[in-house]
Amino acid sequence: MPKHLRSSRLLAPCLMLGALAALPGCVAAVASASGAASGYSAAQERSVTEQSNDMTIKSQIVRNWDRYDYNMAKGLGLDLYEGRVLITGRVQNPEWRDQAVQLAWKAAGVKEVYNEIEVGPETTTGEDVNDTWITTRLRNEILWDGEIHSLNYTIRTSSDVIYLIGAARNQAEIDRVTNYARNIPDVKRVVSYVKIRVGAPEAATTAQPAGVQAPPAAGAQAPAGGGQTQGSGGSDRIEVKPLQ
After folding, report:
1. Which run of H or of E encompasses 14?
2. Could you tell me the pTM of the whole model?
3. What is the rounded distance in angstroms from the CA atom of residue 197 to the CA atom of residue 182?
4. Which of 36, 108, 174, 195 is 20 to 30 A from 8 in CA distance terms?
């Protein structure tokens, strides 16, 4: 193949990415592509092993859910960060909510389970589209903020409520993220399970922080619903109200 044609073929993807970057709605997609090419694991501050473990845990949980009831599974959202499991979404009966949590604990490597499952009718297409728009808007906001390491945050929106999980470098960074979230139109609540990343291991505690569910005892029903609001720190559930 002539040299000038080979050069054109190599430049084409770059030109396409440049065009996409000019479109606000494509920012997140372009960022994901560039992040993968430049070393996603390093930027996210999780080791390759930790990310692989999370993917394995997630696969196990989804498989457990699908085997139990596909209709239950399709209404749930699942996010993991270093063995911490965040379950969101809406199911049609309380039994499914309890089962989803119990089945999540059966996956090897699970450290904590945050139950944010609602009970109600299936979400509509309009609700799903609006949730996706909110997530994309927040992802774009924090992507361009130099004070935020955006790849450390996983964002999930369910029924106009933003849920965050991940690890921050300091409290100021968490505050910046939640402030962006609470100013997005249509957002009802912002719930954060983001921990501050520290160099030393966290001290063991006997009490479970709010929103965190301990493994259910054999034959017992898992507790239902998310925890009450507490202050920041540790793995406590932090909730802020929107500024609108």
Report:
1. helix 3-21
2. 0.69
3. 23
4. 36
